[in-house]
């Protein structure tokens, strides 16, 4: 079992990498910005490098020695390359070079700023590089700085030798005077024990004199040359920069890397799910469909040339073959937050899709705060069958309500043309929304889906805005989440799943949609063959105040009109 799990994870890794790369491409403006910055930096490097010439010299260092061919001599221990490099970059060397070049003291810092000294690994070589805008001047200054370093190092070694010789000479002079005094004393004595003692002292003094004299002689015999110049600077024939084409290429590559890095950081800290995989992981359910741009605000089923209608049919078939849905045939459609435009459109189109398969479908609008479906759909009155029981509302603003009276106005019929027809239980404004949603009347209404040929689709207000959907989960336990990945956060989807599962429901999956940009033309205009005939509403269902009555289309005067669903635009909702 564990081996199978590891194999599945290994197979998923390439797909996850491809998905992450596709998500990075969503931030094209960040990647383009990085490329722009890289190209600007490359252009600056190419332009500035075209006016810069580099002249180089090499100096191989050596330690002072009287016998440079002695096999026991360890030069690498006598020379500290790091210290020598700092000496070459010091101000004293720059002052000596400036004096030799005829420059003033105020130009020393400018001369020093163009010098670079490096030490190749595993060598005793100092590599001097000087950058200037003129090739002749670059070579002249490089040679001057190299000679100034060699002369300064030689003076330092000679000064060190002079100090040591003086110290040894100061030790030798008193011993020589004492030896002369002993020689005089010995001449005035005859043989005896006293003379023997003086001879012994003189012998010790002579040994000490010989030792000190030998050291002084060795120091004076040392060759104090600190190193040899093995390459003199010559005027360079070409600029030191990489050239404008190469600099632009390198800048572009660096810019692409920088843009991808910034886009990846933006993707990591982006709270919105940027792909269907993110939505599926957040709700722990499949993404049943992705609606075309701008189609979430229109009723599309019944149009023969609609891509959105086919997507709704696909969602309906996937739900029909889902074991969790097939056992109960009831689904609750909700949105995370915001308006109900998208969830109402998905619920209505799913109802039409199920009706197209021959099911007896009931669409229940469980929005008891701002109901609007009955005004947006082309509906007609119907007899009051078993979809709703009991008599309806009385007069007054909310009607003569008793506990659990919704739905009291019965069922309306929505004609979907060739797709068939389905029932609609419109929402009504009530005084106590929780009590109406949990009433026995609603339970009996939803129980109609127990009939094998019946399907109930319930649309409720957003889960994170009201708890109305959670009040229905115990009876409509299959929940379909409708969301726009650009406007919802992963934390919201996770919270919705936790609320639904905690209330005893199951997330069947999610449907994603993308709202068109304001002022855009994402939704194509409908031709004459897509028009919907307005079916006369009952007389007791007058248009709301301020709503313009829509003209009726007569199929005799307009042969292209068909009996189906009227397209609902975002402005209507």
From TrEMBL:
Keywords in alphabetical order: Membrane, Transmembrane, Transmembrane helix
Residue ranges crossing the lipid bilayer per the database entry: 27-47
Region (Disordered): 510-573
Protein name: Lipopolysaccharide biosynthesis protein
Source organism per UniProt: Streptomyces marianii
